[in-house]
C-alpha cells in the first residue's frame, strides 16, 4: 500500500515526493509516462558529451530565499546570469529593451533620463491595459513593438498580441539603464551537475518508488494507494469531458557544431522573418568546456507536447469547469503547470508544491486528531 500515488516526476511531483517521504515518513509511488525524471527540466549528455536540455533552455532564477535554500539541499550551484540578444535590423541587440538597445538601434547617445523622455514621446496612452499589445505600445511605442515583440509573439502563440492576455508581454520588462541581464532575481544559478542530478538526489529515498515509461492509468487500479497528487494535464484526467484545453507546443532542432562557440550569449531571439523564435547555446548556461558546441533551434507548433497554456479568455473558461470538478475531489490534489493551466516558472512550481505540502501536513494532522475522517466514505 502506497500512501501517495504521484503522477509526474517533474518539479511538482518530485518536490512533493521528497517532502512526503522525508518529513512524514510515508510511502510514495511516482509514475511518469516519459522514460526519465525531471519533466521538461531534464538534461542529459548528448553523443558528443555535451550537456544539453532536450526540451529547450531552463534557467533557474528566483527571489525566494526559501525556494533557493530548499533546492540547495539537492544540488550545488553555478552562478549564472542569463543574457539574451535579439536579431533586429541586422544587429544583435539586448533584450529586454534597455539604454544600449535604443542607442545602438538608432545610432543615438541618450542618457537614462533622456531615454525616459524618448519612450514617453513614442508611447501610446491607454486608458486600460487589456492585451499584450497594450502593454508594449503604452511603454515604448509602436515601432519598437513591431521590431521586437509583435513578430515573436505571433510566431510563439499563433495569435496577434492584440488577442492575448496582457500577462504575456508583461513578463518582459523595459529598462532605461544598461542592465542587460534577462532576469533581475536575487538568486540566479544553474545546478552545478545539471537538473537531472538534482532530481535524482531529490527522489533518492527508500520510501520512494519510481516507475518510468508508464501511464498512470495502466496501474491506477492495480497498485493500492490512499491519495493521489496529479501533475499532468487536468483535461486528460477528466477524459476531456469539457473539451481539450489548448496549448502551444515546440519542436526542437538540436545541432552539435565542430567549433568552440556559436553565438556571444546563451540565447538569441529572432522576432521577425525566421521560422524559429530563438537559438540557445548550452555551454553558456552550463559552463562546460568542450571543443564542440551544441545549440537548439525552437520552432513553435500547434500540436505536440503541451508546453504553454494559452492566455486567452476562452481557454480560461474551459479550465474553470475542470477546476470546479477538481475542487470536489477528496483524494486527489492537482499541482503544477499542466494540472492548474498556469504558465509557471520553475521556482513558482516549487513554491506551489511546498505550499501544497503544508496543506497536506495540516490535513493529516486533522485526520490523526479525528481518525474517522480518514475512513473511506
TrEMBL record:
Statement: the UniProt record of this protein carries the keyword Transit peptide: no
InterPro entries hit by this protein: UDP-GALP_mutase, UDP-GalPyranose_mutase_C
Keyword Nucleotide-binding part of the UniProt annotation: no
Residue ranges of every copy of the UDP-galactopyranose mutase C-terminal domain listed in the record: 147-343
A single Gene Ontology CC term: cytosol
Enzyme class: isomerase
Source organism superkingdom: Bacteria
Keywords: FAD, Flavoprotein, Isomerase
Cofactor list: FAD
EC number: 5.4.99.9
MF annotations from Gene Ontology: flavin adenine dinucleotide binding; UDP-galactopyranose mutase activity
Gene3D superfamilies with a match to the protein in the record: NAD(P)-binding Rossmann-like Domain
Family affiliation: Belongs to the UDP-galactopyranose/dTDP-fucopyranose mutase family.
Name the UniProt record assigns to this protein: UDP-galactopyranose mutase
Organism whose genome encodes this protein: Allomeiothermus silvanus (strain ATCC 700542 / DSM 9946 / NBRC 106475 / NCIMB 13440 / VI-R2) (Thermus silvanus)
Amino acid at each position: 500500500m502506497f500512501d501517495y500515488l504521484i503522477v509526474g516526476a517533474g518539479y511538482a511531483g518530485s518536490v512533493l515526493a521528497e517532502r512526503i517521504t522525508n518529513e512524514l515518513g510515508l510511502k510514495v509511488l511516482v509514475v511518469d509516462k516519459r522514460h526519465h525524471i525531471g519533466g521538461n527540466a531534464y538534461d542529459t549528455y548528448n553523443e558528443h558529451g555535451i550537456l544539453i536540455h532536450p526540451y529547450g533552455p531552463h534557467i533557474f532564477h528566483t527571489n525566494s530565499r526559501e525556494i533557493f535554500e530548499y533546492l540547495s539541499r539537492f544540488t550545488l550551484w553555478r552562478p549564472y546570469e542569463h543574457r539574451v540578444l535579439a536579431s533586429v535590423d541586422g544587429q544583435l541587440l539586448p533584450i529586454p529593451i534597455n539604454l544600449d538597445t535604443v542607442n545602438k538601434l538608432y545610432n543615438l547617445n541618450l542618457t537614462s533620463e533622456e531615454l525616459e523622455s524618448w519612450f514617453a514621446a513614442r508611447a501610446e496612452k491607454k486608458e486600460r491595459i487589456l492585451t499584450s499589445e497594450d502593454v508594449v505600445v503604452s511603454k515604448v511605442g509602436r515601432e519598437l513593438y513591431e521590431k521586437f515583440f509583435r513578430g515573436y509573439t505571433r510566431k510563439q502563440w499563433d495569435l496577434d498580441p492584440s488577442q492575448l492576455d496582457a500577462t504575456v508581454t508583461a513578463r518582459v520588462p523595459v529598462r532605461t539603464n544598461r542592465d542587460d541581464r534577462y532576469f533581475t532575481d536575487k538568486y540566479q544559478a544553474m545546478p552545478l551537475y545539471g537538473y537531472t542530478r538534482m532530481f535524482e538526489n531529490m527522489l533518492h529515498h527508500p520510501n520512494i518508488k519510481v516507475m518510468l515509461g508508464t501511464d498512470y492509468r495502466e496501474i491506477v487500479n492495480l497498485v493500492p494507494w490512499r491519495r493521489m497528487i496529479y501533475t499532468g494535464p487536468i483535461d486528460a484526467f477528466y477524459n476531456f469531458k469539457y473539451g481539450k484545453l489548448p496549448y502551444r507546443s515546440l519542436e526542437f532542432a538540436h545541432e552539435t557544431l565542430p567549433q568552440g562557440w556559436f553565438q556571444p550569449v546563451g540565447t538569441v531571439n529572432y522576432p521577425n522573418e525566421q521560422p524559429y523564435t530563438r537559438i540557445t547555446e548550452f555551454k553558456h548556461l552550463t559552463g562546460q568546456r568542450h571543443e564542440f558546441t551544441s545549440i537548439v533551434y525552437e520552432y513553435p507548433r500547434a500540436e505536440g507536447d503541451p508546453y504553454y497554456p494559452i492566455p486567452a479568455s476562452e481557454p480560461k473558461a474551459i479550465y474553470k469547469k475542470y477546476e470546479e470538478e477538481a475542487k470536489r475531489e477528496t483524494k486527489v490534489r492537482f499541482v503544477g503547470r499542466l494540472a492548474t493551466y498556469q504558465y509557471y516558472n520553475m521556482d513558482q512550481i516549487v513554491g506551489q508544491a511546498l505550499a501544497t505540502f503544508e496543506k497536506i501536513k495540516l490535513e493529516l494532522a486533522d485526520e490523526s486528531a479525528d481518525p474517522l475522517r480518514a475512513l473511506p466514505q
